[in-house]
Design goal:
The chain has 412 residues and is of the alpha/beta class. The protein contains 15 helices and 14 strands. Helix 1 runs antiparallel to helix 12, helix 7 packs across helix 8 and helix 11 packs across helix 12.
């Protein structure tokens, strides 16, 4: 997809620039800088991707300038590929680092033989829950979605708490559930894109939540981590929340909750995988970089070395490390907020090995989520999630074609 020439390694000292919305990332770069006097890294803060950072990056690319590296969400990477904005790192030997990364994350930056970014962080999914609320009702912690539904009926019938909420307006979570169930909505091939949003795994998830909403197992009036959700959780009206590893920091915002919450593996579907990912970023080497090999090597150090990962956790509060074997020293012990539980090693680290390796992002991810959310909102006026899936697939096909992209439905 890229046509820029392969550039030789630098001959002499160089300075790399990195645009990112992670706080205090310069302190991480300073650890590298102290050890690599000939390759110094300077970090500039930008707004989060869709909040303005991407617009700034696109403008810089159009002007032929910009940084060597930029933080790009995994789901946004294909859009930068469309404008030839990122470098195919396979020409700089990136495959030698493949075994350092979780397989699923590596696959999410790999397209048709190329590797277009370095995974930077992610969010394996588990279930945050209140053991006291489950125990008071004689309930075991659900391991499957059907067990989760049955427990939700008990909470509903008692009338004091919900087992979870379903965010109708943020369909990225639904995409994660579908991926866990075994769905692969899009894949790139040599002739364009293949879409398969209405596969049986996705329809199973949609039918399940249609039922959960209809039978008032889940709430839909507010999303996780909103003020209304925090207030409900503080009143003991939220029994659990299926969410990503980065939610642990947000959970501490629940008033009076220290020691009350624990973490368990995500409930599983009848098909698919033990967990899924929500969120995740990359360190992408832009096509305008004059030193792509050195930029790649810094990104690999930052995301797979013990000192790089520890520095990112301590200074920047990153999500889950993309490294196969290193989660960060700070995440290896127990947590007072979660009652002393070593939930990172007990739950989230195993979850990274239980992912859908075939899930792939596509060039109009955010637009797809917006279209799907419009369809989901019709649930409140008699529509169904199942209907929204089929409608969204048809509309997204038109979006692709209007952008001049080749797309076809998967053979079923």
């Amino acid at each position: 997809m890229n046509t820029q020439p392969t550039l030789p390694p630098a001959d002499g000292p160089i300075r790399l620039t990195y645009w990112s919305w992670l706080k205090d990332l310069q302190k991480v770069a300073d650890v590298w800088n102290a050890q690599n006097p000939d390759v110094q890294v300077e970090v500039s803060w930008i707004q989060g991707g869709n909040a303005g950072g991407y617009q700034k990056l696109y403008s810089a690319l159009a002007a032929g300038s910009g940084p060597d590296l930029a933080q790009v969400e995994m789901r946004s990477l294909p859009e930068f590929m469309l404008v030839n904005g990122v470098t195919d790192l396979s020409r700089y030997g990136v495959q030698q680092y493949r075994d350092r990364y979780d397989e699923t994350l590596w696959n999410q930056v790999s397209f048709t033989g190329g590797v277009y970014a370095i995974p930077q962080d992610s969010g394996p999914v588990g279930m945050y829950y209140r053991p006291d609320l489950f125990e008071a009702r004689g309930l075991d912690i659900p391991a499957t979605r059907e067990e989760w539904f049955a427990a939700g009926e008990v909470f509903r019938d008692e009338g004091s708490a919900l087992i979870d909420v379903f965010p109708i307006s943020d369909t990225s979570g639904f995409a994660g559930y579908a991926g866990q169930a075994g769905a692969t909505w899009f894949r790139a091939d040599e002739d364009g894109w293949v879409i398969d949003m209405a596969d049986e795994a996705t329809l199973e998830v949609a039918r399940f939540f249609d039922r959960a909403i209809d039978e008032r197992i889940v709430g839909t009036s507010y999303n996780p981590y909103t003020p209304a959700w925090f207030a409900a959780a503080a009143r003991d009206e939220v029994a659990s929340l299926v969410s990503a590893s980065w939610g642990d920091a947000l959970m501490t915002g629940i008033s009076g909750a220290e020691g009350k919450w624990r973490v368990a593996p995500a409930p599983t579907w009848s098909t698919g995988f033990g967990s899924t990912y929500q969120g995740g970023s990359t360190a992408a080497v832009l096509a305008t970089s004059r030193h792509p090999k050195e930029a790649m090597e810094f990104a690999v150090w930052m995301t797979t070395s013990q000192e790089g990962i520890d520095a990112m956790i301590a200074n920047s509060g990153i999500g889950w490390s993309p490294a196969r074997d290193i989660i960060g020293t700070a995440r290896e012990g127990g947590s007072e907020f979660f009652g002393g539980q070593s939930y990172n090693t007990e739950v989230f680290q195993p979850a990274t090995q239980q992912q859908n390796p075939d899930w792939s992002w596509w060039p109009v991810t955010q637009q797809t989520f917006n279209i799907l959310a419009d369809g989901f909102r019709r649930k409140t006026s008699g529509g169904t999630l199942v209907d929204a899936i089929a409608t969204t697939e048809a509309q997204v096909i038109e979006v692709f074609r209007n952008k001049g992209l080749t797309i076809r439905k998967a053979d079923r």
